[in-house]
Amino acid sequence: MSWIQNKFEEGLIVTSLDWALNWAKQNSLWPMTFGLACCAIEMMATGMSRFDLDRFGMGAFRPTPRQSDLMIVAGTVTYKMAARVKRLYNQMADPKYVIAMGACTIGGGPYFKHGYNVVKGVDLIVPVDVYIPGCPPRPEALLEGLMRLQDKIKGGTIARERRTEVVGAG
Q1: Sign, Cα dihedral of 141, 74, 158, 26
Q2: Phi/psi-derived region of residue 44, left when phi > 0, alpha when psi is between -120 and 50, beta in every other case
Q3: Quick one: three-class SS letters along the chain?
Q4: Per-residue pLDDT of the chain (170 residues; tens, 9 = 90+)
Q5: Are 129 and 149 in contact (CB under 8 A)?
Q6: β-strands 97-101, 70-74: how paired?
Q7: Phi and psi angles of residue 124, each rounded to the nearest 5 degrees, phi first
């Protein structure tokens, strides 16, 4: 008989703090209601009953950036809109995540070559976590991107990264 046997109540769960926090973060993402162009229609379709974002814990699209922690940039980002995208991103609470949805959002699309007002990728304005290509991407592609974001959140940690210093070099 070991010293730990019968010391804990039945049903006690022991886990790491990282796992518990990451589980809560990945299953309670609240996307912001924010669409710029035609990709927004596909984003709205993903929230409908056929694709059902609620089963992933993301069904509550929030109207303000202060209530959301996921920005899905769906559509062509122009220079006029870029300042507003950055402002909305800065108003979101940490931890915050960004998904770039569509060819126009990722690289400017067909408008970048002939248009003077289109930003060549939203990643020049805000840091992007997941890219979803397509013109426009299907709702299934957005679901796949959301699951990849959940995988990224699952691998996170709250611990500070250790700095390694070289001592006595030179």
Answers
A1: negative
A2: alpha
A3: CCCCCCCCCCCCCCCCHHHHHHHHHHCCCCEECCCCCCHHHHHHHHCCCCCCHHHHCCCCCECCHHHCCEEEEECCCEHHHHHHHHHHHHHCCCCCEEEEECHHHHHCCCHHHHCCCECCCHHHCCCCCEEECCCCCCHHHHHHHHHHHHHHHHCCCCCCCCCCCCCCCC
A4: 565 566 666 665 667 788 888 888 888 888 887 788 888 888 888 888 788 888 877 878 888 888 898 999 998 889 999 999 999 999 998 889 999 998 888 888 877 777 788 888 899 999 999 999 988 889 899 999 999 998 998 887 776 665 666 665 55
A5: yes
A6: parallel
A7: -80, -15
CB atoms closer than 10 angstroms to residue 143: 18
pTM: 0.81
